[in-house]
Design a protein that fits this description.
six-stranded antiparallel barrel, alpha+beta, Pdz3 Domain
């Protein structure tokens, strides 16, 4: 009995072992028999059956596109910029200031009046290495002592070398420290170009303001045609330089427009093109003589030409209303009622032309032809220019 039982146990053990081997083979080497029909079909190359939509899930809809962010501000233009110029004024103002600040000075003017010492202030710029400093005549007018304060704080006493009260220009001379530089004058200007006023408005030394050239050749303020700018000019800016984007002086700041009414961004500067003529005379002779004709005129527009029943030959010009006694005009053949068409060969096409032509191209003593319209025809009158007294 025991032997039979033992044989059965061995047989059961063998059967269990064989069963285990077959099961292992099935699991590891042929697992597909345990997979669902849809999955085994794929393994056999038959197209899978797609389950119901609920099983796979409905494909989600694409969400709405997000709102586009605000475009970032463009950074400052590079140093080259359009047409060889730097970028916006706010960008290259720093460069202009660094390039020119050592050529700009603060001027303290002491005046002895009724045994009391009073003080006024203004600005100026260094014209050359010989110590010549340019400013306005009205800055130094009546002054007895002059102190120049340079950009680095060093100081020097100065003396007046030359004055032009008609042109509102003056030249001082002082000992210059090595740290300063002279500024170059530039005659070429364009309406709309960026400009910078350097100086000491209200005594605030080393200030810079920015703007553009609003217009050129504005007349009626002085005997000179002026540059109009919207760069802020305040008391204390007088005599300081109006500088272009190349760091050159295109004008000498002279005044803001104030007559009791409210005006904004209306300042005026003496053109460098005229200062180039006056300053050398102030250095060499101490004065400058301005050419003078001796007439009062009105610029004619088309309405006035028609009202005066002038010929179609007259399309512009200035009509002489009065001739000053003992002037150059009084000594010539000019007459009241003459319409001046050309002056020294230059046509009068705008209101400022007489002042512009005289100041840029002629001097006292020059003989110039003046073409006028009189009694229905054009004639030429010769005139020797006088000097303004």
């Amino acid at each position: 009995m025991t032997n039979r039982t033992t044989q059965i146990s061995y047989l059961s053990l063998i059967i269990s072992f064989i069963t285990l081997i077959l099961l292992s083979y099935t699991i590891f080497f042929n697992p597909t028999i345990f997979q669902r029909p849809s999955e085994t079909a794929g393994a056999l190359g038959v197209e899978d059956l797609q389950g119901p939509a609920e099983a796979l899930g409905v494909e989600g809809k694409q969400g709405p596109a997000g709102a586009q962010g605000v475009e970032g501000k463009q950074g400052p233009a590079g140093a080259q910029g359009v047409e060889g110029k730097p970028g916006p004024a706010s960008y290259y103002a720093q460069e202009v200031y660094e390039k020119t600040k050592s050529g700009v000075v603060f001027i303290k003017v002491y005046t002895n009046s009724n045994d009391e010492q009073t003080l006024s202030v203004g600005s100026g710029f260094i014209y050359d290495k010989n110590g010549h400093i340019v400013t306005n005549e009205h800055v130094v007018r009546g002054g007895s002592d002059f102190i120049i304060v340079f950009f680095d704080g060093t100081m020097s006493r100065a003396e007046i070398i030359g004055i032009d009260s008609w042109g509102d220009l003056a030249v001082l001379r002082a000992n210059l420290p090595n740290s300063v530089k002279e500024l170059e004058l530039e005659s070429k200007i364009s309406v709309g170009e960026h400009v910078f006023a350097l100086g000491s408005p209200a005594g605030l030394v080393g200030s810079i303001t920015a703007g553009v050239i609003s217009q050129t050749n504005r007349t009626g303020l002085t005997i000179l045609p002026m540059i109009q700018t919207d760069a802020p000019l305040n008391p204390g800016n007088s005599g300081g330089p109006l500088i272009n984007s190349d760091g050159k002086v295109i004008g000498i700041n002279a005044r803001g427009f104030r007559d009791g009414r409210q005006y904004e961004a209306l300042g005026f500067a003496i053109p460098a093109s005229i200062a180039k003529i006056i300053i050398p005379d102030l250095i060499e002779k101490g004065f400058h003589e301005h050419p003078y004709i001796g007439i009062y005129t009105i610029f004619l527009d088309l309405f006035q030409i028609e009202k005066l029943e002038l010929s179609n030959q007259v399309i512009g010009g200035r009509i002489i209303q009065e001739i000053i006694q003992d002037s150059a005009a009084d000594k010539s053949e000019l007459q009241t009622g003459d319409v001046i068409l050309t002056l020294g060969g230059y046509p009068l096409r705008a209101q400022h032309d007489i002042s512009y032509i005289l100041q840029h191209f002629f001097s006292p003593g020059d003989n110039i032809p003046i073409e006028v319209f009189r009694n229905g025809k054009a004639i030429t009158v010769e005139l020797t220019l006088g000097k303004r007294q």
